[in-house]
Write a structure and sequence with these properties.
By secondary structure, this protein is mostly helical. It is about 75% helix and about 0% strand. The longest helix has about 30 residues. The chain starts with a helix and ends with a helix.
Length: about 190
């Protein structure tokens, strides 16, 4: 299968995954934000919510499913489609490069270490393909429901207006470094 088709399949997987990941990401972002003492409570989350279940119940009770727990899900779709396309295409590309035939024309074996390298490369591709979209998604999911109706493009423009191009990549290096062991282990274990 060509890399383009693998990227399309990955994009489809990302779109489907978004409807599970969106609510989980919303809870994670709002729980993390409660510990930023430099800002008042955001997203309607009072300081020191007792955990994800407590927060999920409160969001649904106060705002319903759509504007509570599924707020920002479309922004998650916008992030996950290119992210998964990048991940799976990058992973497959690296596997192909690592399995190139040697001088005697025998393909190199895809050992565990080579699969780990390919998985790590896929993780880097994931974030490279989607990081500014992740920044926009996080911004949307951290707004109170009355303000979270903006588009990903509006969120990107707002971040760019506040911090320039640097703001769209704030935290990129940390995400990439974190993704290397996560992605290489995930892909090695799932294919072994």
């Amino acid at each position: 299968m060509g890399l383009g088709n693998i990227a399309i399949a990955g994009a489809g997987a990302g779109a489907v995954n978004s409807f599970v990941a969106g609510p989980i990401e919303l809870l994670k972002i709002q729980l993390q934000a409660q510990y930023d003492h430099s800002k008042p409570a955001v997203g309607g989350v009072p300081k020191k919510t007792q955990g994800p279940v407590d927060l999920a119940k409160r969001l649904v009770a106060e705002h319903g499913w759509r504007h509570g727990l599924f707020r920002g899900t479309w922004a998650t779709v916008v992030r996950e489609v290119p992210a998964y396309a990048g991940f799976y295409a990058g992973f497959e590309y690296a596997k192909r490069i690592l399995a190139l035939p040697s001088a005697d024309s025998t393909p190199a074996p895809l050992t565990v270490s080579r699969l780990m390298v390919a998985g790590a490369f896929g993780g880097v591709c994931y974030w490279t393909a989607s990081y500014p979209l992740d920044v926009a998604k996080s911004r949307i999911q951290n707004l109170p429901p009355s303000q979270a109706s903006g588009s990903v493009l509006q969120a990107l423009k707002a971040v760019y207006g506040e911090a320039g191009l640097r703001g769209l990549f704030k935290g990129y290096t940390t995400s990439v470094v974190r993704s290397v062991p996560a992605a290489d282990t995930k892909m090695t274990l799932s294919l072994d």
